[in-house]
Amino acid sequence: MAEKVYQCTVSAPVNIAVIKYWGKRDVGLNLPTNSSLSVTLSQDDLRTVTTASCSKSFEKDTLWLNGHVEDISTSKRLSVCVEELRSARQGLEKEDDSLDKISQLKLHVVSKNNFPTAAGLASSAAGYAAFTEAVARLYGLPWTPTQLSRIARQGSGSACRSLFGGYVAWEMGELHSGADSVAVQVEPVEHWPEMRVAIMVASAAKKGVSSTSGMQSTVASSTLFQKRVKNIVPERMQAMKQAIRKHDFETFAKLTMTDSNQFHACCLDTFPPIFYLNDTSRAIIRVVENINAAAGKTVAAYTFDAGPNAVVYFLEENSAYVLDTLYAVSRNAQGWEDSERNPTSVKIDDVASE
Ligand code: DP6
């Protein structure tokens, strides 16, 4: 007789930070040097779908990521997540004798992104959020998204923010254990549902310097970074939360752009320097400035992660104006991938994974 297979499928969204996480104070536990804040994008457009299963017939913990097979035990980040979730399941099994002892079975996890081929987006946030939630649900853990975020954080820092919809903060915490370094929702999507993003793909290639190694070089060598984490980010986090609460797009936009600029300035201040932006990225910064100058107010805000692709925030009411201008740029200028897809316009969303 075939062995029973226990299974659970979830999906998780991408998030794009407006106050950037960059720097670890504890590499092992993946604890950040500063708090960060992001907006969660709609799963209709961008999501990772993950199925976790376990069975007596499985021989080892294995992950299939977009079709590539990986032994979970050879990845420190994946193993940490699995160990914590498995031991929580063991705890439940000890308390309740009627539960199947599935913590003793090997796991198979299949994960797939639905991102447009050339989205060029970092997928680790949605990936680790979906991984954590799929295994937690398979194990029937009665955990809140904030509790799950502590696990997802250890897979990839930005992943902890993908467990919530809307506007999300990752509070850096103070404890050495990392127990208080978790994500919390600042406001749900319904609070300010008019927010939109356009993703402009300057390059779909894998980034040259990974976030993990890039941020470690910055922590080790940048003096500007020291000032950023101590004197600038704490106030900016408060100001950004206020702007979101008051639906103040101009302040939201200014903080978003200056924080992206400062993050890239810290990369340049790293020794040897790290360059994530290219000429195409810098051209989009000018275009957004021109959009705002022509509108006579700030209606669009750019931000860039650890790569050259632009994410532009705007409100629904300015959608036609902002998108038409960005389309014209990608059609008429060199440097953009597949102009048919540029920009990809995405709504923001709540997390409703089933
Ligand atoms: C620039 O979350 O990918 O996108 O914790 O090492 O996996 P690790 O880093 P990761 O870094 C994301 C950096 C960023 C900013 C952000 O998302 O806040």
Short description:
By secondary structure, the protein is α+β, with helices and mostly antiparallel strands.
User: What is the 3D shape?
Assistant: globular
Beta fraction: 15-25%
Q: Which series of helices and strands comes N to C?
A: EEEEEEEEHEHHEEEHHHHEEHE
Strand order of the largest sheet: 1-6-9-7-8
Largest sheet: 5 strands, mixed
Q: Could you walk me through the main structural features you see in this protein, from its secondary elements to its overall organization?
A:
Its EC number is 4.1.1.33. Belongs to the diphosphomevalonate decarboxylase family. It catalyses: (R)-5-diphosphomevalonate + ATP = isopentenyl diphosphate + ADP + phosphate + CO2. By secondary structure, the protein is of the alpha+beta class. It is built from eight helices and 15 strands. The strands form four sheets. It has a five-stranded mixed β-sheet with strand order 1-6-9-7-8, with helices on one face. It has a four-stranded antiparallel β-sheet with strand order 2-5-10-11. A hairpin with a 2-residue loop joins strand 7 (62-65) and strand 8 (68-71). Helix 1 packs parallel to helix 2 (124-138), helix 1 (76-95) packs antiparallel against helix 3 and helix 5 runs antiparallel to helix 6 (249-268). The longest helix has 23 residues, at 223-245. The model has no long low-confidence stretch (mean pLDDT 93). It binds ligand DP6.
